[in-house]
Amino acid sequence: MKEEITPIEEGSVTTPRGFLASGVACGIKARGEMDLALVCSERSGRVVGLFTENRVAAAPVLLSRRHAALGVGRAVILNSGNANACTGATGMADATEMAERVASGIGCPTEEVFVCSTGRIGVPLPMGKVRKGIDQALGRLSPQGGSDAALGILTTDTYPKKMGLKVGLGEQEIFLGGIAKGAGMIDPHLATMLCVITTDADLSSEALQVAARRAVAESFNRISIDGDCSTNDTVLVLANGLARNPTVTLESGEFRLFQSALSLLMGRLARMIVEDGEGISKVVEILIEGASDEGDAERAARAVAHSLLVKCSWHGEDPNWGRLMAAIGYSGAAVDKDRVDIFYNGVQAVSRGERAGTAGRLLREVVRLPQFTILIDLGIGSGHFRLLTTDLTERYVRLNKGE
Amino acid sequence: MKEEITPIEEGSVTTPRGFLASGVACGIKARGEMDLALVCSERSGRVVGLFTENRVAAAPVLLSRRHAALGVGRAVILNSGNANACTGATGMADATEMAERVASGIGCPTEEVFVCSTGRIGVPLPMGKVRKGIDQALGRLSPQGGSDAALGILTTDTYPKKMGLKVGLGEQEIFLGGIAKGAGMIDPHLATMLCVITTDADLSSEALQVAARRAVAESFNRISIDGDCSTNDTVLVLANGLARNPTVTLESGEFRLFQSALSLLMGRLARMIVEDGEGISKVVEILIEGASDEGDAERAARAVAHSLLVKCSWHGEDPNWGRLMAAIGYSGAAVDKDRVDIFYNGVQAVSRGERAGTAGRLLREVVRLPQFTILIDLGIGSGHFRLLTTDLTERYVRLNKGE
């Protein structure tokens, strides 16, 4: 069998063998939408968790981080509508109870269950509703439940984010699947990113760790909608080994292929999050080249992506490269303005720090597109960085005004 | 005479003895508004200039920085409607010509003239119009011209920013005056801050330097509207000595009083800039206390002031303290969430990282006010920082969409 990766657009966390899922509406959200999701493997497997770097981490993050350190996982329970953050000892007790209830329902140690929450900060969970919801979710677990689980974690997302992959790995076929939610909360809105990836591949603990970290670095760490890093961001990867392939280690020939598949899956889910960002009208890929090193390239890219003035001009379809120059100028990166070149989808706007003389019409044609790429070449070294971001719209402000 | 500082609300750069000014409409702006201002002392004096730290500095900044290093100043020529930034050798030649034309008009070395520009980046100045405008401005110089000069530097500001002060300094009366412009440009919009301060006080070069740096650190460096640091920010302080007071040195008893007056003047102008920020509806003072040091306090304050989610919730009059917790959590400052207290105008919202149990009504009453103060006590050390900022509105986005 030749090595190949085949996307399964309708796939999700239940695409890999031995994974069940469900989604239910338990009443955390006022309007009766789904707000609880459960993902579960038929047997325990390896797990890797990557969590927000925010120092005000939510209770479910603290609990899941502790469980992930043990490396063995069976299930993930996720709720939307409430972040269970800044909720003190009560919040920690509630997160623990969620894990315990799932563990007793499926029959595994509590340490093999992970908890994710997303929603308003500072409000205790309505545990009466959550308990009933967990019991319901346990009862509805099914190999077709991935779509419901994708729905159960949504907030202001306008569509569910899920995907599967089939990979020819040596003599075996293995599968990967994922669900994710993006930026925005209903009542009110907080940028939070949650993602659960499942695979039936058998991997060494080290191989899974390395692959997950690399894939996250190239996907979820390369997107920015509003620059707000949440208290709840979580990515979990569960591998149950049911494909019964020879264990993939860092030294295996198959590692590179698994890495490619995982990176592809997370990259697609990350792009879906950006494309469905709150109130956005443009998706913009920023490529920084010629920086003195990668750190400087990242600083320049993030300054551009975070600049309100830059984001507003994209929304207005104005190829205002002066604002790009200003943003890289204050980014902290080494910049010699007389060496900077800037291109919009390959059309040169800036040559050596000055306008390139291109007809404004050509540049405006690019920024009218719903998606375009801006390449900024600093002309100093070989550091480069890629970042996917969005414009800033009146609708974003309206959505996030809260009550 | 007792030491006292008396605000002159109608004052400006022409309040101190021996300063003339003018403002004209020379056609840089399409709609015929004033777009050129000239401030000039009858005789040369000391000067201090403080400039943007943006590495993509505009031509007038490069020129004025070089002139300011010589320490002697006579006049400042300022234009709005065009930033003369990213304009290469042409831009540098244009800025130099502006200084030369003013110098030859008033009869002083070119090095005693300073140039400030604000407006769109990347477009060469219409020098035909600028030359005529400078000649007109020279012809209209007058001791009552400060108000016109304040008008000539405006962009999307909705009112001119100017003020004067009378100070009893030992046996003498001295005067200070200032004009400033805030965030926003007409076609299109770029956050740029320009300020010219005049005084007839006689000070040593060192005393003027120290006083100016301290005053800027406490005023213009403590405001944030959209977090974008421009290519053109400039603060110039001219002291012509015509009050004929005994020279104030760092060791003089009068230094402290001069410092207070200059800090007061810049503080008032800085506040006017924030209050007139683009499209804003709220002015919010952020006080960080209990940080491990001042650097951490500043990081926490700036993270809060730059958070789109925080700014949107203020606009929506939602006392969403969870977003404040999230922002300090990712600020890079040392934070122990279980020690954080937060107060809105003294009403406690957060106690040791959890909701304080205050009635939501009391908090909502505070955030409905046009101006309020948020105190965040990190409960770790004694580092503190104060920052004045604004909300983010749909109107800001509309104003900055450009074309």
Automatic annotation (TrEMBL), chains A, B:
Enzyme Commission code: 2.3.1.35, 2.3.1.1
Top-level taxon of origin: Bacteria
Annotated keywords: Acyltransferase, Amino-acid biosynthesis, Arginine biosynthesis, Autocatalytic cleavage, Cytoplasm, Multifunctional enzyme, Transferase
Subcellular location: Cytoplasm
InterPro entries: Arg_biosynth_ArgJ, ArgJ-like_dom_sf, ArgJ_beta_C
Site label Involved in the stabilization of negative charge on the oxyanion by the formation of the oxyanion hole, positions: T118, G119
Cellular-component GO terms for this entry: cytoplasm
Chain sites annotated for binding substrate: T155, K181, T192, E278, N400
Reaction it catalyzes: L-glutamate + acetyl-CoA = N-acetyl-L-glutamate + CoA + H(+); N(2)-acetyl-L-ornithine + L-glutamate = N-acetyl-L-glutamate + L-ornithine
HAMAP family: ArgJ
Function description: Catalyzes two activities which are involved in the cyclic version of arginine biosynthesis: the synthesis of N-acetylglutamate from glutamate and acetyl-CoA as the acetyl donor, and of ornithine by transacetylation between N(2)-acetylornithine and glutamate.
UniProt-recorded name of the protein: Arginine biosynthesis bifunctional protein ArgJ
